[in-house]
Specification:
The complex is a heterodimer of chains A (113) and B (881). By secondary structure, chain A is mainly alpha-helical. Chain A has one domain: Winged helix-like DNA-binding domain superfamily/Winged helix DNA-binding domain (Arc Repressor Mutant, subunit A), CATH 1.10.10.10. Chain A has helices at residues 9-17, 25-35, 44-56, 83-105; strands spanning 23-24, 60-63, 78-81. Chain A is elongated and about 50 Å long. The N and C termini of chain A lie far apart (36 Å). Chain B is an alpha+beta fold and 881 residues long. In chain B, strands 3-4-9-6-8-7 form a 6-stranded mixed barrel. Chain B has a 6-stranded mixed beta barrel with strand order 14-15-20-17-19-18. The chains are: A mainly alpha (113), B alpha+beta (881). Chains A and B meet through α2 and α3 of A and α2 of B.
Chain lengths: 113, 881
C-alpha cells in the first residue's frame, strides 16, 4: 500500500542517510549537505530534535559506536535505522515514485521545449 | 584546538542554553561538534561573510529548536497545568491593560516606534547583506581587481591579458571570466535604439552557472574579430523589443552596424550583478594579445571547491608578482580579491548597515527606557494590588511572572503595530535608494525579518519589564499600611534617574550621528569638484563601426555635431570626452616621464581622460598654467597632454617645469605636457584626487563619447535642441543618458543621502523619546515627593525654591547624561569615518549644536513638571498623607 501523507523532508533525508550504514549526527548532517548540494542544511538543533523524535517514534535506534570510530571530541552516539524506519522510508519512496509517474504521464518533468 | 575554535565553542555553548537542561546534557556536546563542522565549512567557502551567516542561522536554530524542545518537555510534564497558568496570566494581563487604556496606548505606541524602525531598517540591511547572489554556488565566486599600492589605488579595472594569465596559472581557480558593460546601437527595426549590453569572455555564463533558457551558450571559440558575431538576449529585452517572438532565435540583428546572430535567450530569473543589460556579446578581441598598459575590464572567477579565499588570494598575488617581473608595464601593479558577495554589497553599504542598525538599536533602547519608566510609575500605583496578591499566597516568582507576562503582552502588541509600520517604512527607504543599485538585492519582510522582530520583541519585553517587575514584587512589607513610603520607591527614583542618564546619552549619540551625516551629505553636494556643475548638460553618443569605419569619418562627425551644438542659441561652450566626471570610468595608464629613471621611483600610474577642445571650457576646469586643447591638436598634430596638480605634486620635483615634460606610454603615445589643470573629482564624490592625464580625443579612436555643454540658463530646456542638432548629422544615432551634471552628482550622493536622511529621522525620534523620558521621570520623582514638597511649602518655602530644587536634581542627571553621551559620540564618530566625507568625526559645530539643543529640551522636560509640583496646595498634600 502507498502512503498518502508525506514524511517531513528532513526525516526522509535522515532515514535515507541511515539506509545503508550506521552514522553519528555530524556525519548525517554532512552526508545530507553533500547529497542535496547544500540545499538541505540540518542545523544542529533541527538535527538532534529530529533524531530524538525519530528515536521516540522507533524509526531509528541508538547503537554502539563501531570500534574503529574516532573518539575526537568525545564518544559519539551512532544511529541505526529500525525495521519500522526502513518500512516508512520504503513507503515514502514509493509515494514519491507514484507522484513522479503521474507527473511524467502528464508530460511534466521532461525536457522543457 | 585554535583559539578561534575555542571561542566559537564557548559562544555556541551559550546559545545552547535555549534548550532544556536534559536535552543539553544528552546532545549538547555532539551539537557543538556539528556546529563547528558547519562553521568551518562556511568559513573556508566564503570567509567572514559565510561565518556571519552560519552564526545567524545557528542563532535562529537555537531559538526555534530550544522553544520546540521546551514546549515538548512541558507538554510531557503536564500540559494542562502550565498552559492553563500561561493563559490565565495572559488573560489577567490583557484585562489589567484594558483598565488603563492611556498607559497601555502610550506604552504600545512607544514600543511600536522602537520595533518598527528596527524591523524596517533590518529588512533593508537583510536585503543588502544576506540576499544570496543569483548565481550557482555564489560562495565560490570572487571578484578580482587590479591595485597600485604605491598610489593607494585599489579596485581598479583589470588588464585583459593579465586576467587571462591568472586564469591559466592559478590552480585554485576553476575558471575566470572577463567582462565589461557596453552600449550598442541597434538599428534595422522601427527606430534606432541604444541598447545596454555586456561584453564577456565566452565562458562567462558557464562560470556563473547559468545557461540560456532557449538556444545555446557561446562556444569557446566565439571571441575576437570576425568570431564575435553572436548575441544572447535577456528575457526582458526579448519581451520589450520582440514581444517574445520565437523566430528571433537564429535571426540577425544589426548592432553597431554589424550583423550578429541571436544564439540564445536567458531565462526570466537571470539577474546580472552589475546592472540591467539587454544583451550579452563576446569580446571583439582576444584576451591574450591585449596591451598590458590598458586597465579597463572587470574580472570574476570561481574558486575550486577545495580552495578557500585565503589560499586563492595568496596564489593570485604570487602570480601578479610573477607578471610584474615578466612585463615592464606590470611593474607596481598587484591585485585585490574579495568574494563577489562582498564586492556587490560594497564597503559603504556594509558600514552604513552597521551604523544604521546601531542607531535603531539605540532607539529601541530609548523606547524600552521610556516604557520601563512608565511601568515603574505604574508600579507605584499598583503596590497595594500586588501586596494583596502576595498576602493571598502568591509567591514572588509568581508575581514576577505575571508582571513579565504583562510586559510581553505590551511588547507583542507593540511588535505587531511596529511590523505594520515597518512594512510601510522599508518600502519608503527602498524607494529612496539610488536607482543605479545592482538588481540582485531583494528587499522583503521574509522569515528572517520576522524572526528578528520576534527576537527583539521578546528582548524588549525582558529589558523594560524585568527590573520594574522585580522592584514591584520585592519589599512588600509596609505596602498594606497607609501612607508608607517604602525604600523601594526611593530606589525606583534612583533607578529611573539612571535610566534618564542613559537615555540622554543615547540621544546625544543619535543626534551627533545624524548631524554629522547630514552635514557630510550637504558637504558632498557643495564641495569643490574642480569644475562648475551648474548649467551643464551631458549626453552619450556611440558611433557604429560599420558606418564610421575610419578615424577620419568619425572625427568629422564629432566636429560637425559639436559645431552645430555650439551654434544653438544659449549654448556657451561644448566638447566631448570618453567619460565625463563622476560617470564612474576607471581608465588607467602607466606612463613614464622622459628623462626620469623609472627604476628610481617605480611606475607612474594615472587616471586617463580623453578630451576634445571645448570640454575644459564647458566644465570650467581651472587651469593652473599652460593652455587647454585646441582645434590645432588634431589627429596628425604633435601629441600633447595636460596633467593635473596631483600629477605634478606626486611625480615631478619641486624645480621641474611641468610644461617642459614629455610623457611616454609604451608605443601608445609620446606627448608633451602643454598645461596643468586643478584636480577634478572624477570617480566618486567620496574619492580623493589622483594623478590624472588628459589627452586630445582627436588623437585617439574612441567611438562612444559624452557630449558636454554649458548653457546660459536651465540646461534641461536645451534637450530637444541638442537632439535636433545630433540628428541633423545622422538621424540613425540614438542619444542616451541625457542628464544635467547636477543630476549626475545627486545620483552619486544618493546612497549617502538616504543614510543621512534616515539618521536625521532617527535623531528626531530620539529627541522626542528623550524629551518624553526626562519629562516622565521628573514628573514621577516629583510626584513621589508630593508630601515632602507640601511640608516645605507649609514651612514657608517659596514656590520658586521648589522649582529650583526639582530642576536642580534633574539637571545633575542631564549633565551626567550629556557628558557620557559626548564621550560615546566621539567613539562612534571613528566607526563612521568611511561614510563621513569632508566632515571631521569630532566636528565641534555639530557637537556644540547638539549640546545646546539637548540642554534646552532637557530644561523644558524638567521645568514643566517642576512648576506643576510647585503649584500643589500644601494643605491638601499633607491631608492626603
Amino acid at each position: 500500500m502507498t502512503r498518502h501523507t508525506k514524511l517531513k523532508p528532513h526525516w526522509f533525508h535522515i532515514l535515507l542517510s541511515l539506509a545503508d550504514r550506521d552514522l553519528h549526527g555530524t556525519a548525517i548532517m554532512e552526508e545530507v549537505l553533500e547529497r542535496t548540494e547544500s540545499h538541505m542544511r540540518l542545523w544542529p538543533g533541527k538535527l538532534y530534535g529530529a533524531l530524538k523524535e525519530l528515536a521516540d517514534a522507533e524509526l531509528i535506534t541508538e547503537v554502539d559506536a563501531p570500534d574503529d570510530a574516532p573518539t575526537e571530541g568525545g564518544k559519539r552516539r551512532f544511529y541505526s535505522i529500525t525495521r519500522t524506519g526502513r518500512l516508512t522510508l520504503h513507503e515514502e519512496v514509493e509515494r514519491l515514485a507514484v507522484l513522479v509517474r503521474i507527473a511524467r504521464s502528464k508530460g511534466a518533468g521532461g525536457d522543457v521545449a | 584546538m585554535t583559539q578561534n575554535r575555542r571561542r566559537a565553542r564557548t559562544a555556541y555553548r551559550f546559545m545552547l542554553r535555549a534548550y532544556p537542561e536534559d536535552f543539553r546534557d544528552r546532545y549538547g556536546a555532539e551539537m557543538e561538534e556539528a556546529f563547528l563542522a558547519l562553521l568551518h565549512l562556511d568559513e573556508s567557502r566564503s570567509g567572514a561573510l559565510g561565518a556571519a551567516r552560519c552564526w545567524a542561522g545557528a542563532a535562529a536554530d537555537s531559538i526555534r529548536g530550544g522553544t520546540a524542545a521546551r514546549l515538548t518537555r512541558k507538554s510531557e510534564q503536564g500540559r494542562g497545568d502550565v498552559m492553563g497558568t500561561l493563559f490565565s496570566d495572559i488573560n489577567y494581563a490583557v484585562r489589567s491593560l484594558v483598565r488603563r487604556p492611556v498607559f497601555a496606548c502610550t506604552a504600545i505606541a512607544t514600543i511600536a516606534i522602537g520595533i518598527g524602525v528596527n524591523a524596517a531598517v533590518f529588512t533593508v540591511v537583510n536585503g543588502f547583506m544576506f540576499t544570496p547572489l543569483p548565481y550557482e554556488e555564489p560562495d565560490e565566486l570572487i571578484a578580482i581587481w587590479a591595485a597600485q599600492p604605491s598610489l593607494g589605488w585599489s579596485g581598479t579595472d583589470v588588464n585583459h591579458a593579465d586576467a587571462w594569465d591568472w586564469r591559466e596559472r592559478a590552480a585554485t581557480l576553476d575558471d575566470l571570466a572577463v567582462f565589461n558593460n557596453a552600449g550598442f546601437n541597434l538599428t534595422g527595426g522601427d527606430a534606432p535604439e541604444l541598447v545596454s549590453g555586456v561584453r564577456v569572455t565566452p565562458n562567462f555564463l558557464s562560470l556563473v552557472g547559468r545557461a540560456p533558457a532557449l538556444g545555446r551558450d557561446f562556444e569557446p571559440t566565439e571571441i575576437g574579430p570576425g568570431r564575435d558575431g553572436v548575441v544572447i538576449l535577456m528575457d526582458g529585452f526579448w519581451e520589450r523589443r520582440f514581444a517574445r517572438d520565437m523566430d528571433v532565435l537564429g535571426s540577425t540583428l544589426m548592432l553597431d552596424g554589424e550583423q550578429v546572430v541571436v544564439v540564445g535567450i536567458m531565462p526570466p530569473d537571470f539577474l546580472y550583478h552589475r546592472g540591467r543589460p539587454d544583451l550579452i556579446r563576446p569580446w571583439h578581441f582576444e584576451m591574450a594579445g591585449a596591451p598590458r598598459a590598458n586597465h579597463s575590464a572587470n574580472a570574476i572567477a570561481r574558486m575550486t571547491s577545495a580552495a578557500g579565499i585565503d589560499a586563492t588570494r595568496a596564489e593570485l598575488l604570487d602570480i601578479a608578482g610573477q607578471l610584474a617581473n615578466e612585463y615592464p608595464e606590470n611593474e607596481g601593479w598587484t591585485l585585490s580579491v574579495t568574494t563577489l558577495q562582498v564586492e556587490v554589497i560594497g564597503e559603504v553599504a556594509a558600514q552604513a548597515s552597521v551604523v544604521l542598525m546601531g542607531a535603531v538599536g539605540f532607539i529601541l533602547l530609548m523606547a524600552c527606557v521610556n516604557v520601563a519608566n512608565l511601568l515603574l510609575a505604574r508600579a507605584g500605583t499598583r503596590t497595594r494590588e500586588i501586596a494583596v496578591r502576595v498576602a493571598l499566597g502568591a509567591g514572588r516568582g509568581r508575581v514576577v511572572r505575571q508582571l513579565l507576562t504583562e510586559s510581553l503582552v505590551l511588547a507583542m502588541s507593540g511588535g505587531v503595530l511596529g511590523l505594520l509600520m515597518a512594512n510601510w517604512g522599508y518600502r519608503a527607504i527602498v524607494s529612496a535608494l539610488p536607482p543605479n543599485l545592482p538588481p540582485v538585492f531583494q528587499f522583503e519582510m521574509d522569515g528572517t525579518v520576522l524572526a528578528f522582530t520576534a527576537a527583539i520583541t521578546v528582548g524588549a519585553a525582558l529589558l523594560f519589564g524585568t527590573l520594574p517587575a522585580l522592584r514591584a514584587s520585592g519589599d512588600q512589607g509596609g505596602a498594606l499600611k497607609d501612607g508608607a513610603r517604602s525604600g523601594s520607591s526611593r530606589r525606583s527614583s534612583r533607578f529611573a534617574g539612571a535610566l534618564v542618564v542613559m537615555q540622554t546619552a543615547m540621544a546625544v549619540v543619535l543626534l551627533v550621528g545624524g548631524g554629522l551625516l547630514m552635514k557630510s551629505v550637504a558637504g558632498m553636494r557643495s564641495q569643490d569638484f574642480g569644475f562648475e556643475p551648474e548649467n551643464v548638460l551631458t549626453a552619450r553618443l556611440s558611433l557604429p563601426q560599420a558606418q564610421y569605419a575610419s578615424k577620419e569619418v568619425s572625427e568629422n562627425y564629432w566636429r560637425d555635431v559639436t559645431e552645430r551644438i555650439r551654434d544653438i542659441p544659449g549654448v556657451l561652450s561644448a566638447g566631448t570626452t570618453q567619460s565625463h566626471p563622476l560617470m564612474g570610468s576607471n581608465w588607467g595608464r602607466t606612463v613614464t616621464i622622459a628623462g626620469q629613471d623609472l627604476a628610481e621611483d617605480q611606475a607612474r600610474t594615472v587616471r586617463l581622460t580623453l578630451a576634445s577642445p571645448g570640454l575644459f571650457e564647458a566644465l570650467r576646469f581651472g587651469m593652473v598654467q599652460g593652455r587647454v586643447f585646441s582645434d590645432d591638436d588634431g589627429p596628425d598634430a604633435p601629441q600633447v597632454a595636460i596633467v593635473n596638480e596631483a600629477f605634478v605634486e606626486r611625480y615631478l620635483g619641486p624645480n621641474d617645469d611641468p610644461l617642459a615634460q614629455t610623457l611616454l606610454s609604451g608605443e601608445m603615445f609620446e606627448a608633451s605636457v602643454i598645461g596643468v589643470v586643478h584636480n577634478v573629482i572624477e570617480r566618486g564624490v567620496d574619492d580623493p584626487s589622483e594623478p590624472a592625464l588628459y589627452l586630445p580625443i582627436a588623437q585617439s579612436d574612441i567611438r562612444t563619447r559624452s557630449l558636454v555643454l554649458r548653457t546660459a540658463a536651465d540646461p534641461t530646456a536645451m534637450v530637444s535642441a541638442v537632439q535636433e542638432a545630433v540628428w541633423a548629422v545622422d538621424a540613425d544615432l540614438p542619444i542616451y543618458q541625457v542628464q544635467t551634471m547636477r543630476t549626475v552628482i545627486d545620483d552619486r550622493v544618493g546612497g549617502f543621502a538616504v543614510i543621512g536622511n534616515l539618521m536625521g529621522v532617527f535623531a528626531v525620534i530620539s529627541l522626542l523619546l528623550g524629551a518624553v523620558g526626562i519629562y516622565g521621570v521628573t514628573a514621577f520623582t516629583a510626584g513621589q515627593r508630593t508630601n515632602e514638597i507640601g511640608v516645605r511649602l507649609a514651612m514657608g518655602a517659596e514656590r520658586a525654591d521648589v522649582v529650583r530644587m526639582v530642576v536642580g536634581q534633574g539637571a545633575r542627571r542631564t549633565v551626567l547624561g550629556l557628558t557620557v553621551g559626548m564621550g560615546l559620540a566621539a567613539l562612534m564618530g571613528g566607526a563612521m569615518s568611511r561614510i563621513l566625507i569632508g566632515v571631521s568625526p569630532r566636528d565641534p559645530m555639530t557637537f556644540g549644536v547638539v549640546l545646546v539643543l539637548l540642554s534646552g529640551i532637557s530644561f523644558f522636560g524638567l521645568y514643566v513638571p517642576a512648576k506643576k509640583a510647585s503649584q500643589i496646595d500644601p494643605v491638601r498634600a499633607l491631608a492626603a498623607e
